[in-house]
Amino acid sequence: MEIKILGPGCPKCNQTMDLVKEAISESGISATVEKVTDMLKIAQFGVLGTPAVVVDGMVKSFGKVPKKNDILKWLGK
User: Fold this and answer.
1) In the predicted model, what is the mean pLDDT of residues 36-62?
2) Contact 26, 70 (CB under 8 A)
3) Is 13 labeled as catalytic in the residue annotation?
4) What average pLDDT does range 26-53 have in this prediction?
5) C-alpha pair distances (Å), 57 with each of 3, 45, 74
6) Is 72 among the catalytic positions?
7) Whole-angstrom Cα distance, residue 25 to residue 29?
8) Which of 10, 29, 39, 43 is flagged as catalytic?
9) Rounded Cα distance, 6 and 39, in Å
């Protein structure tokens, strides 16, 4: 599983990254997490607000910090 956190590095982006890592740890799945800060790459996903979470190429959330329960659902747990 490949997860991307899209954002310029703001506090909400960092909080989202921490929540995603916690959810991965709790779920026990194997996943790579990449932080994308390049605005051109972020724009390629069609995201209008950050932070955004992309799981296996699909945008799951943008413009807010997602809840850990939602992240766990995206991970299939």
Assistant:
1) 95
2) no
3) yes
4) 94
5) 8, 9, 12
6) no
7) 7
8) 10
9) 9
